[in-house]
Amino acid sequence: MSHMSTLKLTAETESLINNRAVGYSLEAPFYASQEIFDLDVEAIFAKHWLFSTTEAEIAEPGDFVTVDIGPHSVIILRDDDEEVRAFRNVCRHRGSRLLDSPCGSVGNLVCPYHQWTYRTDGSLIHAESQPPSFERDRFGLKPVHVRTVGGLVFICLGEEPPEDFDEVAGNIEPYLTPYDLRHAKVAHQVDLVEEGNWKLVMENNRECHHCDSAHPELITAYFPLFGYTADDVTPRLRPVFERYQAAAEDLGAACAASQFPRDTWYEPDTRITGFRVSHLPLDGEGSSFGPDGKPVCAKLMGSITQARFGDLSMHMQPNSWFHLLSDHAIVFRVLPVSPDKSIVRTTWLVHSDAVEGVDYDVDSLTSVWRTTNDQDRVLVAGTQCGVANPGYEPGPYSLVEDDVEAFANWYIGRLHKYVTS
Question: Which cofactor does it need (predicted)?
C-alpha cells in the first residue's frame, strides 16, 4: 500500500529522490526543505530502529527516559520485573502527555490530567468514574517496539520494524558484551543543539577528512588516516601511517590474547539497518582520549583487562555512533528538531564501581569530545548556511569520504523505497 496518503509530496521532491547524483552531496532541499524534513521524520525516524538511550540510564525498576521525535513522544522504562519497555507518551483517556520530564523514576505512571494510572508494564490499574461495562484491559498504554543490544536501547515507531535487526544485533553484540554497558554508570551527559539539518550532523560524523585541521585535541589520540589506504597515503602522512601500522599490530595481539572478535563489518548502505563496526588502534599510549592516548579512568570497562585496547567504533544508521575504549564508552544520538536544527546527545559511561574524583575526573574524561562536539557544531552550522545559499550546488565527495557517500546512498534508498511502496 502506498504511503502517499499520509504525506503528499511535490513532483519536485519526488524528482530529487529519483535523480540524486551518486558521488555528490545532496541537493539543497534535502537540508532545508520543510517538506523533506517531514518526510524524513515519517519515512526514516518513524520506520527504522533508532538508538535512543542506554540501559545504564534506566538501571532500576521505574527508571525512565522520554524521547521526542517530531510529533512522537516515547517513554522508555524498566518495569517492575526489570524488563525494558517502551510506550507512547499518551494517556488512553483523553490524550494528555503522561511524562514531561526527560528522565526520572516512577512507581506507577499517573496521568496529570485525570489521574488514570498505569503500571510500569503499561497496564491500566485506575480510571475513576467509569461505568461497570468499562473494560480496563483494553486501555493499557500503546507499546512501542524496543530492543536492547549489549546495553544499548533501540526503539522502532513503525508497526512492522525492519526484520534484519535480529541479524545486525547478532553481529554486533559479541563486540559490545566485554564492555558490560548494561551495568555501567553514567558519568556525564550533554545535549548540544546544532544549527543544522540532522543529515549534515551525520555526514560530518561519517568522515574525518576535516579532523587534521579542525580537531587538534582529537587527533592526539586518533591517527588522521580515515579513508586512506597504504597506496594513497600522502608523503606528509607517511610517518603517521607507519606508526599506525605498528599500533595496529599491537592491538591485534591484544585482541587475540583476549579472544576479542577482529572482523570488521561494513554494511552501511547494503541493508535496511545499516551499520559499521571497526576496531581502531589509538596513537601514543593507545589507551584512551587523554593526552597522547593516556587513560582517563583508572577502572577498565567490563571484562577488558588491557588498557591499551584501542577504540571500538560503531556506526548505526540513521542516528548514532559509538566509541568504546578500555576505560570508558561514549555514545552519541542525533534527533531532528526542524529542517535546520538538531539535538546531539553525548553520554559518557564508566565502570559501575568507578568513583568520581578518585578514578576519574569529569572534566578530563569529557574534555576531548566536548571540544570536538563544539568544533563540529560550528562546522555544521556553517554548512547549513552554505546549503541555504542560492550559490550552493552539490559537490563531489573525495576519495576519503566513502562513509558519507554510503550514508547518502542509504538515506536516498530508504526514501525511494518508502515513497514507491
Answer: Fe cation
Question: Check: CATH 3.90.1210.10 for 51-149?
Answer: no
Show the cell assigned to 355.
568513583
Q: Collapsing DSSP states into helix, strand and coil, what is residue 288?
A: coil
Instruction: Write the DSSP string, 388-400.
Output: TSTT----B--TT
Dump strand ranges (E) for 165-298.
185-194, 265-267, 275-280
CB 334 within 8 A of CB 322: no
Tell me: pLDDT of 5 over 60.
Answer: no
* Tens-place pLDDT, residues 95-154: 999 999 999 999 999 999 999 999 999 999 999 999 999 999 999 999 999 999 999 999
Task: Region of 223 please: left (phi>0), alpha (psi -120 to 50) or beta.
Answer: beta
CATH number for the domain running over 179-420: 3.90.380.10
Q: What is the DSSP letter of 52?
A: E
For 246-302, how does the pLDDT look when each residue is reduced to its tens digit (9 = 90+)?
Answer: 999 999 999 999 999 999 999 999 999 999 999 999 998 999 999 889 999 999 999
Domain ranges of the chain: 51-149, 179-420
